[in-house]
Design goal:
By secondary structure, the protein is of the alpha+beta class. The protein has four helices and five strands. It has a three-stranded mixed sheet, with helices on one face. Strands 4-5 form a two-stranded antiparallel sheet. Helix 2 packs parallel to helix 4 (125-136). The radius of gyration is 20 Å and the shape is globular.
Length: 137
């Protein structure tokens, strides 16, 4: 088959666009929320979910019910087990390093609105936002 110059340039443009779209998809942070589907877990996750929803298609969100076999397999794959109400993974990791060098783990309840009284969260929706924003740059 003979390709004329216009057809060849069109194919090159399509290939370049495909690579650009593929790179954008690959760079898109993936956020997995593995959590129980009942209160108080749902109210504790509301601030984070509201922010994630505001990001539109900039993120890929995966929700997994903590009581499903899929959750059990996913937790085992990342080395967690036991009665954990919430795990948030950003690009497959729940442990992240803050700018000050300390480690934050997106496991159990976050601090902030919706968290049961008496439960001290070790992370916040803002911590997740900072990690996601760092992943996108």
């Amino acid at each position: 088959m003979h390709l004329n110059r216009r057809h060849l340039l069109a194919q090159v443009a399509v290939a370049a666009a495909s690579l650009t779209i593929g790179a954008a998809w690959a760079a898109q942070p993936v956020v997995e929320i593995i959590a129980f589907a009942h209160p108080p877990v749902q109210s504790a996750l509301k601030p984070l979910r509201d922010w994630l929803a505001s990001q539109g298609s900039k993120l890929r969100i995966v929700e997994i019910d903590m009581e499903s076999p899929e959750a059990e397999k996913r937790l085992a794959a990342i080395g967690l087990k036991g009665h954990i109400p919430i795990v948030v993974l950003v690009n497959g990791k729940y442990k992240h390093t803050r700018k000050d060098g300390s480690t934050v783990e997106f496991v159990s309840f976050p601090s902030g609105p919706g968290t049961p009284i008496g439960v001290k969260g070790g992370w916040s929706a803002e911590d997740v936002q900072v990690v996601i924003k760092a992943q996108k740059t």
